[in-house]
Amino acid sequence: MRRFALLATLVVLMFSCNSEKETTAIEPGVALDMAEYRKSVISMVNYRLEFRVPENFDQKIQALEELTFNLMDNSKDIPLDFKVAPDHLKGVIVNGKSQPTELVNEHIILKAENLKKGFNRVEVNFWAGETSLNRKEEFLYTLFVPDRARTAFPCFDQPNIKANFELILDLPSDWNAVSNAPVTLAKVLNNRKNIQYEKSDLISTYLFSFVAGEFETISQSVEGRTFTMLHRETDEEKVQRNKDFIFYLHNASIKWLEEYTGIKYPFKKLDFALIPSFQYGGMEHVGAIQYRANSLFLDEDPSQSQLLSRASLIAHEVAHMWYGNLVTMDWFNDVWTKEVFANFMAAKMVNPSFPEINHDLNFLVRHYPSAYGVDRTEGANPIRQHLPNLNEAGQMYGAIIYNKAPIMMRQLESLLGERAFQSGMQEYLSTFSMKNATWPDLINILDKRTQVDLKRWSDVWVNTPGRPVFDLKVEEGSEGVTASLKQIDMSGEGRSWPQSFRLKLYNTTKKDRKELQVVSADQVYEVKMDESWKDFNLLANSNGMGYGLFPVSYDLLASQWAGLSELEKGAQLINMYEALLEPRNVGQEGQYTPTEYLELLKWVLVREKNQLLISQVLGQLRSVYWNLLSADQRQNVAPDLERTLFHCLNDLHDDPSIKKTFFGTLSSVAITDANLKRLYSIWAEELSIDQLKLSENDFIGLASNLAIKMPEKSAEIVDSQMGRIQNPDSKRRFEFIAPTLSNEQAVRDDFFETLKDEKNRETESWVLGALGNLHHPLRRKESIKYIEPSLELLQEIQQTGDIFFPTRWLDQTLGDHNSVEAVEIVGNFLVDNPDYNAQLTMKILQSVDMAKRASKILEKTAKK
Fold this sequence. Notes:
Elements: E1 12-17, E2 20-25, H1 32-41, E3 42-52, E4 62-71, E5 78-81, E6 89-94, E7 97-99, E8 107-110, E9 118-127, E10 139-141, E11 163-172, E12 176-179, E13 183-189, E14 192-197, E15 210-213, E16 216-222, E17 225-231, H2 236-261, E18 271-275, E19 282-283, E20 288-292, H3 293-296, H4 304-319, E21 327-329, H5 335-349, H6 359-375, H7 399-416, H8 418-431, E22 435-437, H9 439-447, H10 454-463, E23 469-477, E24 480-488, E25 499-507, E26 513-520, E27 525-529, E28 536-539, H11 556-559, H12 566-580, H13 594-605, H14 611-628, H15 631-652, H16 656-669, H17 673-683, H18 696-709, H19 714-724, H20 728-737, H21 745-754, H22 764-774, H23 780-783, H24 787-792, H25 794-800, H26 805-814, H27 820-832, H28 838-847, H29 849-863
Parallel strand pairs: 3-11, 17-18, 18-20, 21-22
Antiparallel strand pairs: 1-2, 3-4, 4-9, 5-8, 6-7, 6-9, 10-15, 11-14, 12-15, 13-14, 16-17, 19-20, 23-24, 24-27, 25-26, 25-28
């Protein structure tokens, strides 16, 4: 990546309108008003692009572009987006007339006098910008979402100006490539490979893509449909173990979507590339999906959660071909619509391939904890947000659109009924096929299928942040007991979230229970019972449909264990954990302390067999252990906790995937000498555990843990592990993070300083792994000094990094801190920067939330 300074002086351009002149400032980025004007006058866009990738990594990529479009009004200059250093622009010709090679606040200005109504041709000679080409010595891949196409080539970089692309790639002869369209011609001449592609389908700029490099290719036909996969995996056994099911899942996803939508696969092909250290799980480029390699190539004995995650990821990206690619949001404030449809549909689509899985439970554990993790914070954001400029579109992404929105959509489907909802989806897709649409467009379609005022319903669910708190009151009277459940809006705005869910009441004095359907909105829900029900335990949201902070009875899990379904156990675990994280609950009657809750989790682990529930419990256990316990408390609970985990790993489970799940948690939490020595012996391959098979990735992760926890052996462990790594991409990653595993503080400090240089943050997943090491809970005192400079880098990271990087940078920086001092550093930073970017402020408040809660809980429990 290369950085450049914006022009110091705002350049004002004169736009002519009939005989009058109006002055409009051209902003950096893609401003909403500019985008709306361009959409109103530009159509029939076609890009013909050629990229010449040199053998020498240090040389620039030469590129040529021929852009054609229809223009309805040529009275104004038209900005063409191009965010590169000025010296990257070598020549511009508009309709045969040469223009100065000038960039104005990230734009080439197509002069009105050179434009004409109707057909226009723009020719550009330039060096490709590499910010979003993700260029390595042996491969490169484009990643243009949300507004990064303009960092590589000149374009109208907005989702509602769809275009056709004609691509030519000139590459080293041993490189392979994939793009949106099929290949029309490929030839090798003079040690160069030239690949020409068909004209693409009509797509938005963020969906244009190509991957090129030293990749192996595998093509496979499934039920008459042929897919091609690019990969760089060196472990042939891993490739053979995974490939058939990967191809099967892509085909199964297409078949399901064709049936559900009533629309055949809408594009020319579907291929995919598996990329090492890819920034996301996947990206839905039309006909050329990109995936993080280790999300699809699973190690031996993968857990049920990993298998489901892979299937869900593939289903999600394939669903985007209809939801996002065929019908695209008009502006990135509705980016959540494509993500909610993809996640919501993926939850349905994986069912046929995993008939043995409790899919209601899977939906619960995949969506609710992550959604609550944002919605409980002071920085909670609504699902639909205002977006004045696409250069902030990356901050639209997060758990709210990926996890809360599917919960909302499931409530909406329940409200309409599955058939009416599906019919509405089909109308939406057919009406806006190959076009752009907004959320209100969909609501208008669905509103015809129900008596409920969906616009009012949508307003609280979609346009406002947060979740309700459900307050339970029990009153005894002459005729018995009345239990009332009402919603409280903690923001004080008096909102209520229309929803329905089930709850169960368990009588504590006699073996009796009640199961009730709650319809909750403005009105308080009441249930009247006889006096024998004055003592009962509550299981709220027993069917996993409701959303909010529910009251809990902590002893219900143990007292009713044998009678609870898997879904009910999952709901109760989530309810209890959310209640545990409320500092105001500390000291209240019936509320568990973190150490008491840890004991309950251990009790569950030795009894539970369901992998999804085991994974949920282990995730909570790690969070409580590292965040909500003091160092002394952790030392006190560690011996028995580690014994319990090893007992589960070694004695209770024969399934290798469950064993590996427990082993991962034991490796994460172990701090006693006995178990660190045991883990060291396993890493050194001096000790093995029956049916526990560790991959190269497992050994790398174990080495990283041990280097931090056994500092006297850190240099030996890192050096030895470096020599054991076979995969070259994995070795490069380990070489990058190795300084963060050092026992020497100065080495770690020097590494952190290197992150201030943008070029050292290029491979973002490596950076995030390194930050996790620097801020390991056992290093809190040493790493707290990194917090303030990390916050100071955040705006630059937002401008130069990909969409998830700012949030993940913050999470890795703040997520393992739990001190008042850390919270104060963040608070002081925000006070000192009162005009700080609003979107980034929200992300900071989201990421620091656990530290805030943990510091208050630790303070209160210390006083008890």
